[in-house]
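Q: Can I see a sequence and its folded structure?
A: Here is a first one.
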Amino acid sequence: MKKLEEYVKSIPDFPEKGIIFRDVTSVLQDAEGLHLAIDTMEDMIKDLEYDVVAGPESRGFIFGTPIAYNNRKPFVLIRKQGKLPRETVSISYDLEYGQSVIEMHKDSIKPGQRVLIVDDLIATGGTTEAMIKLIESLGGQVVGIVVLMELAGLCGRERIKGYRLESAICYPGK
């Protein structure tokens, strides 16, 4: 049986010279790779007590929804600005080259609910930090974060100190 890392294709010099792009689509395109990714992520948080799973657009949806489904938990969408139809709360945050805004429905998290964040990747931690702030603004408590891949060289873990972060694959470089 292949290791999870073997399903990830690494593309050198994309999107620019010196960067190694870790392609999650190669995991999704292989039935065994997808099963292994979901099973591995679930195994990493099997001892965690949570009420709700939240994930960001779009790959957080892909990995978060099956985890929520398998554990009979609701799934909360975190989307780019302007994509949700009801009343929302939003947060602006810095990206490497600019800013972005994410939002959630105002009624998606109830005060006191324990929330698990699921995503495909943590790099610098900016998006993860914004999600935490957004969930906590609604009274939710982030009890854990699980990602498929961590780019440890970009120090995202440092940005979210104090929160449990599990990564199925950890790449040491950028």
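Q: Show me another, different protein.
A: A second, unrelated one:
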Amino acid sequence: MSWLKMTSESLYLMKGGTNQYLDKVDLAVQGDPANQEFNLDVPTQWLEGSDIPKVVVIDVGSTEKPSKATSIFDADDIFSKVVKRSNWNASVPSSRFELVDRPKFIVIHHTETPPSSGGIDQAKTVVKDIQSFHMAPEPKGRGWSDIGYSFLNTVGGILVEGRFGSLEEAIKGNAVRGAHAGTDAGNRAPGVASEGNFSTKAMDSDQWNSLVNICAALCQSCNIEPSQIQGHRDFVPTDCPGQWLYDRLDRLRIEVAQKLAS
């Protein structure tokens, strides 16, 4: 039978502008494929509530499996620029971490620390210091088995790998369970922390652009909708990621979506 694909326009007819139901739809040709008649088996969620999809657009392609949608934006290019754990002298984690396939969110944080002077050496020091704090026993630290964040976006827009395995799994489209969001759902999503305190202070353009890039790379690789970029405070009561940054999450979602569509 011919392979079927949903057009990009139809994704935004799904609840909340996401494709959360798309992978649950079972399309099968009925009778003569030449007549292009299809049976649509939908999940039970579609039969409840007033926000169910009203229209599904189907594009019948060739008999070949459709290739991944092309985009000028390349997640692998962004991932290749991330400073790996081996380059910032990361300590070995004290336990193994659960692997999460198909994470549903990206969780945005700030480190709530004074910004460094910037540069690659400072970026490495900042991340190493955060890991040391996260792994130190209570009450001087968090008592965690590794740094809690998946990625850190440091001054000057330098991206650094956080928790062990985060970069490798992100490239595969997966995540490593972190310790950054305060809930199971949040910790099963990649956590991106930007260096600085953004309660009132604005982020400069270099750091903002790198935040957009890492979020776009994660969305593309892990098939996460930009609308599912959330703030830490969306999961637990906290000031994180700072009021200034939290107020700009809609802008972040828009810029990520624009970059993926370019």
